[in-house]
Recover the amino acids of this structure.
């Protein structure tokens, strides 16, 4: 667990170590099957996988990444002969990000081995199961954090993981429950994961319907004093920004949840005018005002 947080070279060596990732996944599967999700060894295994998933999209060799998605090239070309297929893992441009919102999901191997397991739906479902069943805060945080890492990029893999979490594995109820735990780091990581998920246009309405009222409910009445709560508040505002951008319907959900007064109060907090939370709230307000059909509702 300590070695897995030793930096890029350490992660590379551990990802390439034959049988290591498979063994970690095997142990966690056994713990869940035996209804023992709270033991220390499971926590350690999940924390290692969490660390090994950090920056996975940009640290995998390009040749390896291309081989994973090679089977989808023909499908992409059939969908649009005019669209040039973007790079698989390393691309960071806004234009490519917009194209990849609707990129077909990569095919999964039925029996993944080693590093392939890190983004496979089997492990994604394991993380969601631990989030739902474990009462150990470090295990919950590491499971959420692994999913946060896997959804942090802009290529096909992060968006495929996001769709698996939201649509295939029905993970939003488990994530939503973590918004209301007392442990601040768990709550912060859950919000950060939702922020990543909310970047996917095809998932915004599902996410808004499931968790937008909960996000509003945990917004404070003003900028929090401690750093972790301030960061969580900022992340909530940016998640709401993603969900309400270009969607009057989702914006109405925010209004009906009485979110606007909270956002205004956070943006105008004099003692922390330049805090992350105040800036994020201001960005959200500016975006909300772009829905001209709702101006009268705002004024009320």
């Amino acid at each position: 667990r300590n070695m897995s947080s030793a930096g890029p070279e350490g992660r590379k060596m551990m990802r390439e170590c034959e049988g290591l990732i498979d063994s970690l996944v095997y142990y966690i599967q056994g713990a869940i099957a035996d209804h023992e999700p709270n033991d220390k060894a499971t926590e350690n295994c999940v924390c290692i996988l969490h660390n090994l998933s950090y920056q996975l999209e940009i640290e995998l060799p390009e040749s390896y990444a291309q081989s994973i998605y090679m089977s989808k090239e023909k499908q992409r070309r059939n969908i649009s002969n005019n669209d040039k297929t973007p790079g698989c893992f390393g691309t960071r441009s806004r234009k490519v990000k917009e194209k990849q919102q609707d990129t077909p999901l990569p095919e999964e191997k039925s029996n993944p081995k080693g590093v392939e397991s890190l983004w496979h739906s089997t492990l994604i479902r394991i993380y969601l199961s631990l989030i739902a069943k474990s009462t150990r805060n470090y295990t919950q945080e590491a499971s959420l954090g692994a999913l946060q890492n896997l959804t942090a990029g802009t290529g096909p893999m992060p968006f495929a993981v996001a769709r698996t979490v939201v649509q295939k594995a029905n993970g939003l109820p488990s994530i939503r429950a973590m918004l209301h735990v007392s442990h601040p780091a768990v709550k912060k990581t859950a919000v950060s994961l939702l922020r990543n998920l909310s970047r996917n246009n095809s998932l915004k309405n599902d996410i808004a319907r499931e968790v937008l009222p909960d996000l509003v409910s945990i917004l404070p009445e003003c900028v929090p004093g401690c750093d972790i709560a301030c960061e969580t508040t900022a992340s909530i505002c940016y998640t709401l920004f993603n969900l309400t951008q270009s969607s009057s319907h989702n914006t109405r959900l925010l209004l009906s949840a009485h979110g606007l007064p909270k956002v205004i109060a956070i943006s105008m907090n004099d003692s922390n005018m330049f805090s992350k939370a105040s800036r994020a709230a201001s960005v959200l307000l500016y975006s909300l005002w772009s829905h001209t059909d709702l101006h009268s509702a705002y004024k009320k």
The chain has a mean pLDDT of 86.
